[in-house]
Amino acid sequence: MNVRRRHISAVALTAVAALGFGTLTACSSDSAAAGDTGSFDVVASFYPMAFLAERIGGEHVHVTSLTQPGQEPHDLEISARQTAQLEEADAALYLKGLQPSVDEAIGQSPIATKIDAAELTTLEEHGTEAGHADEHGDEHAHEDEHGHDHEGGDPHIWLDPVRYAEVAEGVGKAFQKADPDHAADYRKNTAALVKDLKALDEKFRTGLANRTTDVFVTTHAAFGYLAERYGLTEEAISGLDPDTEPSGARVKELQKIAKEDGVTTVFYETLVSDKTAKTLAGDTGLRTDVLDPVEGITDRSRGEDYFQVMEANLTALRTALGAR
Fold first, then answer.
1. Mean pLDDT of the chain
2. How far apart are CA 217 and CA 148, in angstroms?
């Protein structure tokens, strides 16, 4: 795992940082990795949680992500080394239901501050075993063949800027309580982040206001909250787990939907193979493009952080939906 250790030397840490491993955003403080710096040490489950911790914590926190850049977070299995790392942290920030091994490890750890993002907003059901919600929005399958349990609801809350802002506010309050010496800064940073998220929400609202179709097709049913927020309809090839293979019947159904609803594009994502998307697009005469679920930032990402990638998603959606 490309995860920064608390007890490696400053020289080694500088070398790691120079290579770009374990770095989350420009807010990262590599010098804070040692255990004697006095920083508030936060272990985050994957990028959207790490991004919140860094934006809210600022210079007072050292954030380590359990999921390395480019790794599909659904597939993460916690190592013994990471379990030990968890035990030394001041706080853990995670999203229960997305990564079962993380849920188990944090549940068994002695960390005093455990922040479950799923408890800071409302989760809803999206997708079915066929990989999509039916016309009534009903959810029929809570656990896929890979054992990823989403019974508590769709975990992809960070793709809705409004829900993500709710989570940010909850994380800010948790940081203030756990590290009261820096509460004022956490409060200020949280307010600034929430303001930016509200501005992003407004960009999506105005950017998608005038469109020729509401329907978009994705390989992975990650965009249910985003679709719901802006009045769109997501039709996914696979379910909440991006590795689930679609049935032949589902592919035929999508071909029909694409024709009837004026779909122009089949979206795939940066961390998962585009093979299925290209196959469907080729069979239906559609083009392919990236709609990034922002589960991790890599060299292939269309941006260097959450906001840049989300704005790239907006541009891609505007094109696909014929927004003017």
1. 81
2. 22
User: What confidence score (pLDDT) does residue 242 get?
Assistant: 54
CA-CA distance, 111 to 30, in Å (whole number)?
22
Count of Cβ atoms closer than 10 Å to residue 121 Cβ: 20
What percent of the chain is helix, strand and coil (3-state, nearest 5)? 45, 10, 45
Alpha carbons within 13 angstroms on the beta-carbon side of residue 308 total: 11
43 token code pair: 């272990």
> How far apart, in whole angstroms, are the C-alpha atoms of residue 102 and residue 78?
6
Per-residue pLDDT reduced to its tens digit, 54-99: 999 999 999 999 999 888 898 899 999 999 889 999 999 999 999 9
- The lowest-confidence range among 134-138, 229-233, 257-261 is 134-138
Confidence band of 49 (pLDDT split at 50, 70, 90): very high
Nearest to 158 by CA among 84, 104, 98, 88: 98
d(CA 178, CA 158): 23
Q: What is the pLDDT of residue 33?
A: 37
* Nearest in space to 85 (alpha carbons), one of 6, 162, 32, 157: 6
- Least confident span in 98-112, 122-136, 207-221: 122-136
Q: Which residues of 227-238 are buried (b: 16+ CB within 10 A; e: fewer)?
A: bbbbebbbbbbb
232, 214 contact by CB (below 8 A): yes
Q: How far apart are CA 258 and CA 263, in angstroms?
A: 5
Q: Which of 3-7, 54-58, 237-241 has the lowest mean pLDDT?
A: 3-7
**Burial label, 249 (beta-carbon count in 10 A; 0-12, 13-18, 19+):** exposed
Instruction: Tell me the CA end-to-end span of the chain in Å, nearest whole number.
Output: 44
* Helix residue spans in 4-152 (DSSP H): 10-19, 47-57, 80-88, 100-108
- Alpha helices for the chain (secondary structure H): 10-19, 47-57, 80-88, 100-108, 161-178, 183-207, 224-229, 248-260, 275-284, 306-321
- Structure-block tokens of residue 253: 């159904």
